């Protein structure tokens, strides 16, 4: 069974707690602290597997969790890190936060692997808190908590061209004729219930990938029938072929069909109508009048709007080559880079909500000090040394209002800010 959406729960591993212990050796009655650090929790990582083309496996398993980190031990023993959880998905999978529907990751194009939930950092053992005035600290840092999140996986087929049209207009026949695809073909409505992909090979190494989007109906944008399941696959395509029954073998008006489908596309996502379109007037082998008024009306209606009309026969192959070369030419006019959805939701930020923080000026050291559970947790989840981690750090400071609080406290460019073990100069 083809499956292109699923809702699952994912959970990162909790960081192991730091350990409190003291050296106890013969002739050393008052040994110093030797509590080890806890291990880091495992992260949840999504990775593209080219051998997968559906999300069926996620229908049978709903919960995925990485391993927690082990606590630290005595004699400076570091707790074992929890194993990462690698979740394999097909190329083209979008991961969204189930509650807000915002994009967390789009595993398309060059983005084939992404950490979705980072494991909690292990807590520091008491050996890390020894000072000249506190030589026997009885405190160790707890591990950072796990992050649990319900996400919706959504598979959008990756194709250059989307083939749209009402049921039974000949899309599957067309696809089988011009590509290597072998879709199921029969004279029934909704024979095609899954998007079919095929590769069109033209001369001199030219070609493109085409997707037969299953038959749309009026009301599809409102979820009638399988509307949303079908419409979302058009979002990644760059050019659309409207296929209509030019012979009106079922009594349908081809012009009205095109407007009806465009109305559904616009209702679902207005940007879809910005894509180049071409009309394939199919079944001309069933038209006995060479000067058919239906074909003429199609051309008069749409060609002044810049939409070319190609009379074709998917059954006999008539005029197919001209249509395919025209589509290839349209593709050369649009951006060739794959359509990848940008990240809108950052799971780590959910950990910091409603946690307090303070911003004060230390007159003695002449630095601004920002502290609180929200900031401490952020530092526990973020690798500031990496470029991506530093960008996330900046985003965190801005979205959590910490930069605003520093400015209200009177900070100027070049002043120093200290956050626990991290110190940096402030610049806008």
Describe the structure.
The protein has helices spanning 171-178, 227-231, 254-268, 293-302, 320-331, 349-352, 373-381, 387-399, 402-408, and strands at residues 5-11, 44-48, 63-65, 85-89, 93-97, 103-107, 113-117, 148-155, 161-164, 196-201, 207-212, 239-245, 277-282, 308-311, 358-362, 367-371, 416-419, 422-425. It has a 6-stranded mixed sheet with strand order 10-11-9-12-13-14, with helices on both faces. A 5-stranded mixed sheet has the order 3-1-8-5-6, with no helix packed on it. The protein has 9 helices and 18 strands. The relative contact order is 0.11. With 428 residues, it is an alpha/beta fold. β17 (416-419) and β18 form a beta hairpin.
SS summary, helix count: 9
Q: Quickly give the structural class.
A: alpha/beta
Question: What is the global morphology?
Answer: elongated
**Residue windows where pLDDT falls under 50 for at least 5 positions:** 183-193, 223-227
Q: What is the first-to-last residue Cα distance?
A: 53 Å
State the order of secondary-structure elements, H for helix, E for strand.
Answer: EEEEEEEEEHEEHEHEHEHHEEHHHEE
Strand content: 15-25%
Instruction: Give helix % range.
Output: 10-25%
Q: How would you sum up the major sheet?
A: 6 strands, mixed
Mean pLDDT equals 81
What integer value in Å does the Rg equal? 30 Å
Lateral arrangement of strands in the main beta sheet? 10-11-9-12-13-14
Number of β-strand runs: 18
């Amino acid at each position: 069974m083809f499956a292109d959406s699923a809702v699952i729960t994912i959970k990162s591993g909790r960081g192991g707690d730091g350990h409190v212990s003291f050296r106890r050796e013969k002739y050393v009655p008052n040994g110093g602290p030797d509590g080890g650090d806890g291990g880091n929790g495992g992260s949840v990582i999504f990775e593209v597997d080219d051998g997968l083309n559906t999300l069926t496996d996620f229908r049978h398993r709903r919960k995925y969790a990485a391993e927690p980190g082990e606590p630290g031990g005595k004699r400076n023993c570091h707790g074992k890190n929890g194993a990462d959880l690698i979740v394999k998905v097909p190329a083209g999978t979008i991961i969204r936060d189930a509650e807000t529907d915002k994009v967390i990751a789009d595993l398309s194009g060059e983005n084939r692997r992404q950490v979705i939930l980072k494991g909690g950092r292990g807590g520091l053992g008491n050996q890390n808190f020894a000072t000249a005035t506190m030589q026997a600290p009885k405190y160790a840092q707890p591990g950072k908590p796990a992050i649990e999140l319900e996400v919706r996986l959504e598979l959008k087929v990756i194709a250059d061209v989307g083939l749209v049209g009402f049921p039974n207009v000949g899309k599957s026949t067309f696809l089988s004729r011009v590509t290597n695809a072998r879709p199921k073909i029969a004279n029934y409505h909704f024979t095609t219930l899954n998007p079919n992909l095929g590769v069109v090979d033209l001369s001199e190494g030219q070609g493109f990938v085409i997707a037969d989007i299953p038959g749309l109906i009026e009301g599809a944008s409102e979820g009638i029938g399988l509307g949303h399941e079908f419409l979302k696959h058009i979002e990644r395509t760059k050019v659309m072929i409207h296929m209509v029954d030019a012979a009106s073998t079922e009594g349908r008006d081809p012009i009205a069909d095109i407007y009806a489908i465009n109305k559904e596309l616009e209702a679902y996502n207005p940007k879809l109508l910005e894509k180049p379109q071409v009309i394939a007037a199919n079944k001309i082998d069933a038209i006995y009048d060479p000067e058919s008024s239906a074909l003429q009306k199609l051309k008069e209606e749409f060609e002044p709007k810049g939409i070319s009309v190609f009379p074709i026969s998917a059954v006999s192959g008539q005029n197919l080559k001209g249509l395919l070369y025209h589509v290839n030419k349209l593709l050369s006019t649009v951006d060739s880079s794959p359509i990848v959805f940008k990240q809108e939701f950052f799971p780590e930020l959910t950990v910091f909500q409603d946690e307090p923080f303070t911003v004060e000026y230390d007159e003695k050291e002449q630095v601004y000090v920002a502290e609180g559970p929200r900031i401490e947790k952020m530092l526990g989840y973020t690798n500031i040394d990496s470029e991506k981690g530093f960008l996330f750090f900046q985003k965190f400071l801005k979205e959590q209002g910490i930069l605003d609080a520093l400015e209200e406290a009177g900070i100027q460019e070049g002043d120093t800010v200290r956050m626990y073990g991290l110190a940096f100069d402030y610049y806008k």
